[in-house]
Each structure stands twice: as C-alpha cells, then as structure tokens.
Specification:
Oligomer: single chain
CATH topology of one domain: Laminin
Strand order of the largest sheet: 1-2
Keywords: Disulfide bond, EGF-like domain, Glycoprotein, Repeat, Secreted, Signal
Pfam families: EGF_2 (PF07974), EGF_integrin (PF23105)
Largest sheet: 2 strands, antiparallel
InterPro entries: EGF_extracell, EGF_integrin_2, Integrin_bsu, Integrin_I-EGF_CS
Strand content: 25-35%
Main location: secreted
Structural class: mainly beta
Subcellular location: Secreted
C-alpha cells in the first residue's frame, strides 16, 4: 500500500505467501492461524492483545516460564515466549540440570512440601526439583512442589476453566464481576455496579476490607475457627467486636472492661465510666435521670438522637463535624445538603438545619425558582410519570419539578413516587435522625450505617 486506505498492490496469492510460514504449502494456515493477513502483513488476533506476536504471529506470550521467582530459572534466555536454556540445563523454565550431584535423600528432601510430601504426590523429584505430572501436556499441575492443580477449576458440565467466567490461580477460581461459585457457575441477578454499591461500607471500602462481596452480599472473614458466629459481622462487615476487648482473647467475655456493652465494635459505657474500652471511671454529681433530662431539651431523645449524653452534656456525632451542633445537638446542617453536597441548592443559607432561601427561590432545599422560563406543556412533560399521571397524583408541578404534598409528609421523590414511611425507624425516629430517607431507604450521614442508620462507625468520641 502507499498510504492508509489505499488499495493493496499485491495479488491475493502473493499476499498470502508472505503471511505463510516458510516451507508451508499453499492452502496452509496464514499467520500460524493466530491472525489475519492484510496485504502481506499479519495482524495478530486483537481479541487477546499481547498474547500473540511476531512477523507471522509465530510467538505465543511475551513472558517466559518462571521457576522459584526467576525467569527461565536464571539458567536461560527468553526468546519468543520460550526459554532457551544454557548448556547443562533443560525444562520449560530451564529448571532441571542435565547432571545431578545430589544424593537421592538430599534430592527428595528438597522436593518435599510443607507437609513433608514429595512433590505433593502430583509429580516426581528430579535433582531436588519437582517435575509435575501433566501427561496430556496441559500444564494444569504446577508450582515449585506441584502444589497447584488447576484441574480443580474445570467445570464438570462445560469442561471450561472456571466456567469461562473467571481465572484460575493455584486451583481456585477468581470470578469475573457478576459471577460467583466455586467454579464461577452462578450468575448474579444484579449488575456488578449494584453489587459493589450494596457491599460498600460508609468508609468507601468493599465489605470494610473484612470480607468478600458476592452478588451484593458480604461474606465476612469469620475469625472464629469453629465456624460459629464470629467477631466480624454486619451488612458490610462493619462490626468488629474485637475492638471492644481490652486484650483480645477469642474465648474471653471481657468486653468493654466489664463496664459497658459492645455495639458493633464500639463500647457504650455504663454511667460513671468512659474511654474507648470503658476503662476510666468518671465522677458525675448528677443522677442518670438528671443527666438525661439536661441532654434532652425539647427533643424526645437525649442529644436529639445525634450524640452521646455524659453528665448532662452532649457530645455530637460525628465528633468534630461543625454541621452538627447545639446544646442538645438540635442543629443538623446536613439536612440542608442535597445529594450532590450543595448547601440549599446554592440559593440560600442554612440555619440550624433549615434553608433560608434567597429572593426568587423556595423549597426545602431552595431548589425551586419562583419564575419559570418554560411553557406549561414543557413543565408538565417533565413532571409526568410513566403512566402519564402528573407527580403521581400526590403533588403539584412547578417549572418541570414536582412539589410533593405537605399534608402527606411521607411522600417524596422527583415525581412524588416514593413513600418514606417505608424507611426503617429506630428509637422512634426515621433513620434514627442520622440520615435522610430517600425513596423508602435510609441514606446515612458519614460515619453511620445500618438499615435505620443506627450504627455509629466513626472515630471514638472523647
């Protein structure tokens, strides 16, 4: 060719001849059957990039075999994906010496795995190095001591490695997103993104880095070898009861120094005690009832359900967050934030958890302009649900946005199609006062978790 898109000047026969290995007769495989011939040039398969290369796609894999962490065992050079061994060595990774100066006893000793089994009963010992049994040449049995058997990954029905939906490493399948099972034989009924979202803990880690996520559910790493209920639990493995023990001992009941109750890895101390493990005594002139009364204020709950009451004083959660304040933690600026983090939609200021809108804007988050620049038809088209009902029949339409009925406090959503009565309650409050109800589900503030945002995961309060 003379340039991109130009016609090929070679005849078809000449083009194919250049793509065929020397000595191959006409009609033989082009590009070693690993690519397509384009005007006498082999374009290696792009479905597996980097696997096949070379002028005629004659090379397979860029990386040569390794032994004990060294390419070609340090006794050869890698050429076209295969080891070319130095004199005196042989094997796929040049790991075997042609002449052995070891005794049989010493050789066998070097071939024993951690259980003192020679080559894991899956190979033979050759001069202190294991030669794994692979009679069919598949290479599925491998490892320094032949400890890895990838035949364990073969699906009995499809006869594919990990069912074709994962990679096998040392006899264990590591499944692609959306698949699970010992051999990746089961498909999730939710998307990988939804699965990850459900498994993500408030700190942004999948299963709190204490478990594995399978189809949106966390399987926590159970630290109890008996298989009974372990110290790590929770929907996202966020609870670690070991944090409540002064000195960790699996079989002791010494939680919170005996002066409190462990709640999801956090000690709730009895009156008169404080500290991360309730290890410090505290003297308070108030009775428990007097202390709670001072913390209650006009709220039904001590510290408005957003803090801890100690000797008549509230410590608001999360500690150090300026958005939660007040003598009884009654002000929560997080209620002024939209899902995108914008305070009062950028059109107002937050005053003790309520938006004071600028002129020309209204709504709980100052999200509605008083003047609209669209026609009534345009506005209504944005407010109609799939069944053609305006704002689901539970609100009014203003400038393309629904304003849900104030009489039915539980109605919410862009089209007033959500029922916030479905949100879980705890201690009489929706989302325990530690989150916002979003279409029937609790969206917890940072540091909180649980169906009702009742579990505090943040740094321990002072």
């Amino acid at each position: 060719r003379t340039g991109p898109g130009a016609a090929c000047r070679l005849s078809r026969a000449e083009s194919e001849r250049r793509c065929r290995a020397p000595g191959q007769p006409p009609g033989g495989a082009l590009c070693h059957g690993r690519g397509r011939c384009d005007c006498g040039v082999c374009i290696c398969h792009v479905s597996e990039p980097g696997v096949f290369f070379g002028p005629l796609c004659e090379c397979h894999e860029w990386v040569c075999e390794t032994y004990d962490g060294s390419t070609c065992a340090g006794h050869g050079k890698c050429d076209c994906g295969r080891c070319k061994c130095e004199e005196g060595w042989f094997g796929d990774a040049c790991q075997y010496p042609t002449h052995c100066d070891l005794t049989k006893k010493k050789s066998n000793q070097m071939c024993k795995n951690s259980q003192d089994v020679i080559c894991s009963n899956a190979g033979t010992c050759h001069c202190g190095r294991c030669k794994c049994d692979n009679p069919d040449g598949s290479g599925l049995v491998y490892g320094k001591f032949c400890e890895c058997d990838d035949r364990e990954c073969i699906d009995d029905e499809t006869e594919e490695i990990c069912g074709g939906h994962g990679k096998c490493y040392c006899g264990n399948c590591y499944c692609e997103a959306g698949w699970h099972g010992d051999k990746c034989e089961f498909q999730c009924d939710i998307t990988p993104w939804e699965s990850k979202r459900r498994c993500t803990s408030p700190d942004g880690q999948v299963c709190s880095n204490r478990g594995t996520c399978v189809c949106g559910e966390c399987s926590c790493h159970d630290v109890d070898p008996t298989g009974d209920w372990g110290d790590i639990h929770g929907a996202t493995c966020e609870c670690d009861e070991r944090d409540c023990r002064a000195v960790y001992d699996r079989y002791s009941d010494d939680f919170c120094s005996g002066h409190g109750q462990c709640n999801c890895g956090r000690c709730d101390c009895k009156v008169g005690w404080y500290g991360k493990k309730c290890e410090h005594p505290r003297s308070c002139p108030l009775s428990a009832e007097e202390s709670i009364s001072k913390c209650q204020g006009s709220s039904d709950l001590p510290c408005s359900g957003r803090g801890k009451c100690e000797c008549g004083k509230c410590t608001c959660y999360p500690p150090g967050d300026p958005r939660v304040y007040g003598k009884t933690c009654e002000c929560d600026g997080r209620r002024c934030e939209g899902l995108d983090g914008t305070v009062c939609g950028g059109h107002g200021t937050c005053s003790c958890g309520r938006c004071v809108c600028e002129r020309g804007w209204f709504g709980a988050l100052c999200q509605h302009p008083r003047k609209c620049n669209m026609t009534e038809e345009q506005s209504k088209s944005l407010c109609e649900s799939a069944d053609g009902i305006l704002c689901s029949g539970k609100g009014s339409c203003h400038c393309g946005k629904c304003i849900c009925s104030a009489e039915e406090w539980y109605v919410s959503g862009e089209l007033c199609d959500c029922d916030d009565r479905d949100c879980d309650k705890h201690d009489g409050l929706i989302c325990t006062g530690n989150g916002i109800c979003s279409c029937g589900n609790c969206e917890c503030w940072r540091g909180w978790n649980g169906n009702a945002c009742e579990i505090w995961l943040g740094t321990d309060y002072p």
